[in-house]
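Pilot study result, target chain (327 residues):
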Amino acid sequence: MIVCCGEALIDMVPAEVLAGEHAETKTGFLPYPGGSPYNTALAIGRLGVPVQFLGRLSRDFFGERLITGLIQNQVGTDLIVRSGEPSTLAFVHLEVGKEPQYVFYTQGTADRSLSQADIPDALPEETRCILFGSIAMTMEPVASAIESLIFREHTQGKSTRLISLDPNIRPWMIHDREAYMNRFETWLGSTTILKVSAEDFAYLYPDLGLEASMERVLNRGPRLVLLTLGAAGTWALLCRDGGERIWVRAPGFTVRVADTIGAGDTFHGAFLAWLELKGTMSLPQLASLTHGELCDALNFANKAAALVCTRHGAHPPTLAEVEGFKG
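Predicted structure:
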């Protein structure tokens, strides 16, 4: 089972709507459940892999919609704390050929209010991977709460549980870059898999190229680095036992794009789901993956990410849809 930790919010996505006395076409916003860890949990659940979401969700009608979305997509809710704070809202700005831009409304909201007291003393015995990251790790008290969980699980279960980090950098959410960088590099020491985008690396290591950035983070703890490059595909760098390094590059798939919301989250979830479906969700098995197996995993995750781009909002594909996709 995979446990996804962090924010669950409502993406307010622009849409053309009829409004006014004369039913004129205007730009409005439609609410879609979202948040990087939330989207990733949905992607995993829709691929048929056991998954739980760990976080704090509002009892307001948006919170109810978030809970319903989890349940409908086979994501467990036993690790969720419900509260009276409002749900976080993220207004999205879309431009063709560019990454989505967001404005977050997070003050006093439920998901950012996750505290140490909300963290369970132990995760379910069947937990094999823990996922964290995104804007949850830029806000308090949620960042410290999840950080303590990750450090605990790394110390107690590093031989049996993988930890996967997606920083999903949103620069306007980071008020002290130096403090964030120091914290980020301590997380790397407890991380098994790092999933990053080219945009993330541009913020994290602006003076390094992509390959040098991948080498840098691999030297700080992770055994596998996954880099997403949008339509250009994905790269992977794996450190095997004994220090051998394997580079893999997989092309993307050409599709008619509706928007790219949730593409990186779906890639991340699909890659982890592939590990679980293939019985390789452990450190020894991860470190033993062959070049061909890594290619298969990247292609599987790339297909899932391509399919979600054909839909408005983050609506990940099912296993049947991924397996039937020819590209």
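One observation from the pilot: DSSP finds ten helices and 13 strands in the chain. A full batch analysis is planned for the follow-on phase.
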